[in-house]
Write a structure and sequence with these properties.
heterodimer; A: alpha/beta; Rossmann fold; 3 domains; six-stranded mixed β-sheet; 18 helices; B: mainly alpha; ABC transporter involved in vitamin B12 uptake, BtuC; two-stranded antiparallel ribbon; 13 helices
Amino acid sequence: MTDYALELDRVSKRFGAVQANKDVSLNVVKGSIHGIVGENGAGKSTLMSILYGFYQADSGSIKVFGKTTDIPNSHAAIAAGIGMVHQHFMLVEPFTVLENVILGNEGSALLTHSQAKARKVLQDLSSDYNLKVDPDAVVGDLPVGLQQRVEILKALYKGARILILDEPTGVLTPQETDDLLQILEGLKEQGVTVLLITHKLKEIMAVTDNVSVMRHGEMVAHLSTEDTSPEELAELMVGRKVVTQLEKPSNEAGEPVLTVEGLSVVDSQNVERVKKVSFSVAAGEIVGVAGVSGNGQTELMEALSGMRPVDAGTISYGNLKISPGTSIGPDDLRHAGIAHVPEDRHRVGLVTAMSASENSILGYHRDDTWNQQGLLKPALVEKHCAGLMAGFDVRPQDPKLKSANFSGGNQQKLILARELDCEPKVLLVGQPTRGVDIGAIEFIHTQLLKMRNRGGAILLISVELDEILALSDRIIVMCDGCITGEVSAKDADERTLGLMMSATSDSSSTSTEEQAE
Amino acid sequence: MIDTILLTLDATLRVSTPLIFAAFAGMFSERSGVIDISLEGKMLAGAFTAAAVAYTTESAWLGLGAAILVSISLAMLHGVACITFRGNQVVSGVAINILAAGLTMSLGLSWFRQGGQTPLLPDEARFTSIHFPFAETLRDLPLLGGLYSELLSGHNILVYMAFMMVPLAWWILFRTRYGLRLRAVGENPKAVDTAGISVTRLRYSALVFAGILCGLAGTYISAAHNAQFVRDMTAGQGFIALAALIFGKWRPLPVLGACLLFGLLDAIAVRLQGTELPGIGVIPVQFIEAMPYILTVVLLAGFFGKAVAPKAIGVPYVKER
């Protein structure tokens, strides 16, 4: 008989009208790495929250190491040996690594004693699991990869024998991801059971022993990783066949329509975030900007779209030139045929409190088409929105629905529909598929390629390397505000891009300067 | 000259005492992530209660106890509004300030019928100066004698408590398990929650500390520094304490320094009244009295670098899906 670390039997959870988990059963073999995949909203996070005591199941039972266990709160989960590494780290940034690790498990009321003891335990854990971190470093100063190690150490310090990782690689560079996967293998060797939740099928294939697929709150398949393939998993997740490999016909790039020269941009704290960057985008090509988030991409996008003033250098869209001192805003750019799908659809892309139809003309709402004597023509706007929704498969197809009530993928499709509707010459897109289902990703990618094929120029900023590789004709890599590399998509692979993304010193920095000159 | 300096410093200690209590009250509450605009209201209610109870029972200590209880109750009201029901912390704080200003006045009017004041406290019913041994004998020693008998000796017990409270508060915040958790909950309550510790309980406990300290501050104002309650007698000291808290970047020693600085300004202002400065002449009293407040505005306008508040301050904690 197999030993199970976790046995879930028909666990259900309902939030109001939404059945988040329905009769979910799951067996996790002790000492294995078990993957759980599913689209956004498939119920993975709810299930994990139940395991970690954030929510309680409405029905069903949970066995931990063969014993039926009630998990009313996180405390009980920790006591049962369950540890969790959350997608958004649960760390106190101004605290040291040591302080973060002992928080909630201090041992005694006075810190001096407990810290000395913890330091010793931490050293043992670090060497046992090959998780090197300086215990006295301030967590806020550590790179993301190391912060994640602190999270893992935290769980281990609390005595976790089952480690749940929720989308752990979303914020990591490819190299950091490799390191993490190695750490997970190491944990497994030491007998720790690992539950890996991700939407990245490649990672599932690389490290897991078994994989379970969730869809619409239900478990739809339990598979042994050896016997499955990414294609099969994708199909199970979505419930239909998915084209993961997009067809990208070769396309001759035309004249440059966007030229950036020596561009520098400072953020609101007056820190230089984009440093003397130069590149161009031609008609009929997609240029991807790769990089770990927070390396100047956001500020670059804001400057290109007219949302943030330029500190130095110029941005030229044909005859339209933005340089320090010019007052060309997003409105002028829109009318010149430059469309923008912002990174943050909730804050910038949509006004979530307004209806879909109102959002469908946002930014174009002053156009004569929609106005009569200074008043909007709501019926016409609604009809227009219904048309967009049909064309871009936005569901539910209700122009009057508040845009906050659409799922992420549908919100994004609505924005894309709005921006593509007037056939722009240039499209600036930031993170088009962040938090979007596989099905919608496929659709969005197809639309972007369509625009390219009809001769539009696209600048695509994304932290998803797969996306960059699948869509781009040319790829530029940003690190610390500089362009640290430029390659044609044919010659690019994840490894070389990853190295450029983490370029900090030696040979790469010289190439940085050359690029910047 | 030395006498003038000594007297000014002596006054500084006395004026700073309520600021120190209140600022540290704010430190506990805000380090836990709860904005405390209501320092002023809690102090005022504490001052009224202390004077009223001390007068009725003729015991300063009973007055202090009652003031602390009332101040804690107001803090709990703040807690119910903004921890349990996740209301807006600033609005709740302002409401408590208004409540305290109104209640102290109308209760004072109906209980004592002296236009909102409480009757003068006899010496037995207030905290009077404590004189250190040999203070009088040593007074004539050069420098040290003055320092000992003027500056150190001759304050009431609450002054000494305030200054002893500072290292104690530092020790609690930075050397105990409770302090670690308290600081953590003001930065990232989720981290605390996922560590299996109750965010709600921690924040309430921080407000209890705030209540106790504001009760001490209020008692000092009405039953130690003065001998009766006068309406609105806190006169914005709660807000000055808040300013000192922010200026001191929520850290014990700098906050103590800020309180002493504000106290010193106040003491100098009193000293300067009516004296003629060479080349300037007599400075108008109003201007001098406005100095601490003007300085507060200038200091808070970021004159001395940006103050980084606890990250989760002002945000009610909601478990997410």
